[in-house]
Structure prediction request, 264 residues.
Amino acid sequence: MTRATRVAAPLLLGLAVLVGWQLVVSVGGVDDYLLPSPLAIVAEMGEFLPTLLGSAGITGTNALVGLVLGTLVGILLALAASFSRTVDALAAPVVAALAVVPIVALAPVLNSMYGADSEFGRRAIAGLATFVPVFVNALRGFRQARPVHRDLMHVYAASRWQTTLRLTLPAARPFLFTGIRIASSLAVISALVAEYFGGPRGGLGGLISTSAASSAYPRAWAYVVGAIVLGLVFYVATALAERLADPMSSRPPRAGGTTSTTTQ
Prediction:
């Protein structure tokens, strides 16, 4: 499959879905509160574009802060757990508990604790959602270095920092970026959900809730589209960061294997 085909196929599929959606709503006479038409959603996006961009900036900032903080904490704790069995044993139940914390229940609690004018609760929730996948993937990645390679570093009298920098981190890089890619979407989703439950107004989540409550369903869907685009931006940005960090990962395998032989 050529690169042009890989790009054109999903675009054509998306266009077909939109056309079918528009026909179903127009011909079938579906009410807006059940399913607005794509044209109505696009019209609302154009009318409220400044508001949409501003609210996306607020939600994106909260998600980005949470993503950065959650990633840093997850990587550092995973690194400590890879060095120490005690830290690993202590961290495992905590991470398992954090993985099942319901955002819907935690968001109003944090918003009430830190006040209606603070964005801390939303950023903390985004950081919490980010932390778990980053920690799990990073910890597995830090354990990928082979014992023989570690023994070789020991023979060369490498310090723990040198071993981590030259061996552990490069071996863990694919796992780290996998965790960050997963966490990037979770950070956006968590920030959106947190905006439903109090705190400062203006984010995409709050505007979706307000528009739906006032029966402005096409407008609510317009903000949903904005949230989808924001999530895609985060995902694509992390994918590009991975490609820049390891250009070889994006190259397709050579036909016939990685080695070739010649006969004379």
Q: What stands out?
A: The chain has one domain: 35-245. Residues 112 and 224 are 25 Å apart (CA to CA).
